[in-house]
UniProtKB/TrEMBL annotation:
Keyword Cell membrane in annotation: yes
UniProt protein name: Sensor histidine kinase
Gene3D superfamilies: Histidine kinase-like ATPase, C-terminal domain, PAS domain
Domain spans labelled Signal transduction histidine kinase internal region: 400-478
Domain Histidine kinase/HSP90-like ATPase: 497-600
Gene Ontology CC annotations of this record: plasma membrane
Organism: Paenibacillus lentus
Keywords: Cell membrane, Kinase, Membrane, Transferase, Transmembrane, Transmembrane helix
Major location category of this protein: membrane
C-alpha cells in the first residue's frame, strides 16, 4: 500500500508516460461511456416515443372508429326521420296542420323516435323542426318550452340553409335553453348538434332533423381511449373551434397552435408543438363528419419520463464503470512501471565509460527484456553508422576538392597564357585586358569555400568568363546564347561551380579540337519542383550505346571514366537536395547533346 501511495505521489507531480497513458486511457473510456450512455438514452427515448405514437395512433384509430360508428348510426337514424312520409307530410304544409292531422302522422313518428331513444347511446335528443314552425322531439314535446322561438335561432336557421351534397353536417355547439327548467340534465347545458335536411318534392328545404349529442358520453368514450390518462382527446370543427373537450371551459375556443392548418391537408399524422406552455405530441385522425378532426395531445415530458428509470440505472452503471476503470488503470500502470523503472536504472549506468554494456536481467515482461537485450546492439549499430558517415563525409570533401582543383588545371592555364601572349603580340589590348580580367575572376571565384551556395547570376557570370576565354581559343567560332525568360530566378541560390564543368564537358567532348562553328545554349526555366537549367551544344553528340554508358556512370561512383565532372555534379546535387534532383542527359549522334540540371528553387 505504501509503495502504491509513493507511486501515486510521483505520478501526480511528474509528467511521465505512465501518467499520460493513464489520463488518455481514462479520458478515452470516459468519453466512450458517456457517448454510449447518451446514445442509449437517445435511442431509448426515441423508441419509447415511437411506441407511444404507434399505440396512440391505434388508440386514436379505435376512438375514431367508435365515434364514426356512432355518428354513422346517428346519420342513419336521422335519414330514417328525414325520409319519413309523415315528417314530410307535416312539413310540406305552409303552416302547422290541425291537431287531428298531427295525431294521424305523429303516431308513426313516435314509433321511429322510440327506436332511436333505445339504441342510440350518444344521442341526447332529436329535434324535428319545420320551416312552417312545426317542432317535435323524442318525447313528443313534453320536455320542450312551447313558446320558444326555434326559427329565430342561428343554429336552426343554419339547418334550413340549402347545401350542395353535404346532407349530414354539423351545427356546432349551442346551449339547450329550449328545455323546461325541470329537465335539469339538459336545461342550459351545451350540446353538439348534427343535422340532416328534410326536402320537398321539388328538392327544396322544408325542415331539418337535428340530433343533440351527449357531450359527457362523448368525453367518456375519449377518456377510455386516452394515453394512460396523461393527455387529452378532443374534437375540433372545420373552423378550428373546439367542440368536444373534457374541460367545458375549452369548448368553443379556437385552437391556435403551430401546424394546425396541416391537419386538414392530411388524413392522419402527428407532430410536436407547444401547447398549454409545454411541448406536446399531437396526433390527429379524421371522423365521419366532414371537417371534424379528432386530436390527441400528450405532454412530451410524460413520454420522456418513462425513460427516467433507464437513465438512472445507466448513470449507476456509468459511475461503476468509471470507478473500475480508474482502479484497473492504476493497477495496470503500476505493474508496467515497475519493470520499466528497473530498465531505466540499468540504462542510467550506461555511458560512464566508453563501453556500452547491459547486464542480462529478467524484467518480467518479454517486450522489456527484448528492449534490454537489443539496446547494446542498437548502440553498436549507431556507433558504426556514425563512423561510416564520418568517413563518407571526409571522402566526399576530398572528392569535391579534387573536382574543384580539376576545373582550373595546368593545361587550361597554359593554353590561356599562350592565348594571352598571342593577343598581346598582335596588339589586341582590349581583348588581352578582357582575357586577364576573366581569368582573374575565375581564380577568385574558385578560391571561395567549396560548400557555399551562390546566386545563379554569379554562377552564370563565372560561366561567361570561361566561355569568353574558350571562344577566343576557337577564334570566336562558338555562338553562345542565354535564354532566361523569368529574370526573377537570378537571385536564386545554387551550389557553386555547378554549371562551368558542364560547359567545359560540352566543349571538350562536343567539339574537341574541331575548329568549325558551334553553338552553346544555356536556358533557365521554372518548373514545378524548382529550377531546370539546360546546357545544350551542337557538337558531335553520342549514339545510343555511349549515352547509356554515360547515364550509368552518372549513378555509379565506381564508373567515373572520363566523366568525373558530371558525376561529381550529379552527386553533389543529390547529396544536398535529395534523389528527386540531379542530372539528366539527352544526345543525338551528329546533332548535339543537352544536359539538364534539376535543382530546388532557393530564394
Amino acid at each position: 500500500m505504501t509503495r502504491m501511495l509513493r507511486f501515486l505521489r510521483k505520478f501526480m507531480f511528474r509528467k511521465t508516460i505512465y501518467r499520460t497513458f493513464l489520463i488518455y486511457y481514462l479520458f478515452g473510456n470516459l468519453l466512450l461511456l458517456v457517448l454510449l450512455g447518451m446514445l442509449s438514452i437517445r435511442d431509448s427515448t426515441r423508441m419509447i416515443t415511437e411506441e407511444v405514437i404507434r399505440s396512440s395512433n391505434k388508440v386514436m384509430e379505435q376512438a375514431a372508429q367508435g365515434l364514426s360508428f356512432n355518428l354513422e348510426e346517428t346519420k342513419r337514424s336521422l335519414l330514417v326521420l328525414a325520409s319519413n312520409q309523415s315528417v314530410g307530410a307535416i312539413m310540406r304544409h305552409a303552416e302547422v296542420p290541425d291537431m287531428a292531422y298531427l295525431l294521424q302522422h305523429e303516431r308513426n313518428i313516435s314509433e321511429i323516435t322510440q327506436s332511436i331513444n333505445t339504441y342510440q347511446s350518444l344521442i341526447s335528443d332529436v329535434l324535428i323542426l319545420g320551416k312552417n314552425g312545426y317542432v317535435n322531439n323524442l318525447n313528443g314535446r313534453s320536455s320542450l318550452w312551447w313558446e320558444y322561438a326555434f326559427g329565430a335561432q342561428p343554429w336552426a336557421q343554419e339547418s334550413f340553409q340549402p347545401r350542395q351534397g353535404d346532407y349530414f353536417f354539423s351545427l356546432g355547439i349551442h346551449h339547450q335553453d329550449y328545455y323546461l327548467s325541470s329537465d335539469i340534465s339538459r336545461y342550459g347545458r351545451p350540446t353538439l348538434s348534427v343535422a340532416m335536411q328534410v326536402k320537398g318534392f321539388r328538392r327544396e328545404v322544408i325542415g331539418s332533423v337535428i340530433a343533440n349529442l351527449d357531450l359527457q358520453k362523448v368525453n367518456s368514450m375519449f377518456e377510455r381511449n386516452n394515453y394512460q390518462n396523461k393527455g387529452s382527446i378532443f374534437l375540433i370543427d372545420e373552423n378550428r373551434r373546439i367542440i368536444v373537450h373534457q374541460n367545458n371551459e375549452e369548448i368553443g375556443q379556437i385552437m391556435d397552435i403551430d401546424g394546425i392548418d396541416e391537419i386538414y391537408e392530411q388524413k392522419s399524422g402527428n407532430f410536436r408543438t407547444p401547447l398549454y406552455g409545454e411541448e406536446h405530441l399531437i396526433i390527429y385522425q379524421p371522423t365521419a363528419v366532414e371537417g371534424w378532426m379528432m386530436i390527441s395531445a400528450v405532454p412530451m415530458h410524460e413520454i420522456t419520463n418513462q425513460s427516467a428509470p433507464l437513465k438512472s440505472n445507466l448513470a449507476r452503471i456509468l459511475y461503476l464503470c468509471l470507478i473500475l476503470n480508474v482502479l484497473i488503470s492504476l493497477a495496470v500502470t503500476f505493474r508496467i512501471s515497475r519493470p520499466m523503472q528497473g530498465l531505466l536504472k540499468t540504462l542510467d549506468k550506461i555511458g560512464t565509460d566508453d563501453m556500452l554494456y547491459i547486464r542480462d536481467k529478467n524484467y518480467q515482461y518479454h517486450e522489456i527484456n527484448q528492449i534490454g537485450m537489443k539496446f547494446k546492439e542498437l548502440m553498436d549499430r549507431i556507433d558504426l553508422l556514425i563512423q561510416q558517415n564520418y568517413l563518407t563525409q571526409i571522402a566526399l570533401k576530398e572528392e569535391e576538392l579534387k573536382a574543384l582543383q580539376a576545373q582550373i588545371n595546368p593545361h587550361f592555364l597554359f593554353n590561356t597564357l599562350q592565348l594571352l601572349q598571342t593577343e598581346i603580340v598582335c596588339g589586341n589590348i582590349e581583348s588581352s585586358n578582357h582575357i586577364v580580367l576573366s581569368l582573374s575572376h575565375m581564380f577568385r571565384y574558385s578560391m571561395r569555400q567549396s560548400g557555399e551556395l551562390v546566386e545563379l547570376r554569379t554562377e552564370l557570370e563565372h560561366v561567361r568568363n570561361y566561355l569568353y576565354i574558350m571562344n577566343k581559343k576557337y577564334d570566336d567560332r562558338l555562338q553562345v546564347d542565354e535564354y532566361i525568360p523569368d529574370q526573377r530566378v537570378l537571385p536564386c541560390r545554387i551550389p557553386k561551380l555547378l554549371l562551368q564543368p558542364v560547359v567545359e564537358n560540352c566543349i571538350r567532348h562536343g567539339f574537341g579540337e574541331d575548329r568549325r562553328e558551334g553553338a552553346i545554349r544555356i536556358s533557365v526555366t521554372t518548373v514545378k519542383r524548382g529550377l531546370l537549367v539546360a546546357i545544350c551544344d551542337s557538337g558531335k553528340g553520342m549514339d545510343e550505346d555511349e549515352l547509356k554508358r554515360l547515364r550509368r556512370q552518372l549513378d555509379k561512383p565506381n564508373e567515373k571514366n572520363g566523366n568525373i565532372g558530371l558525376y561529381n555534379i550529379n552527386h553533389r546535387i543529390k547529396l544536398n537536395f535529395g534523389q528527386d534532383f540531379g542530372i539528366r542527359v539527352r544526345s543525338t549522334k551528329n546533332a548535339g547533346t543537352c544536359v539538364y540540371l534539376a535543382v530546388p528553387r532557393i530564394e
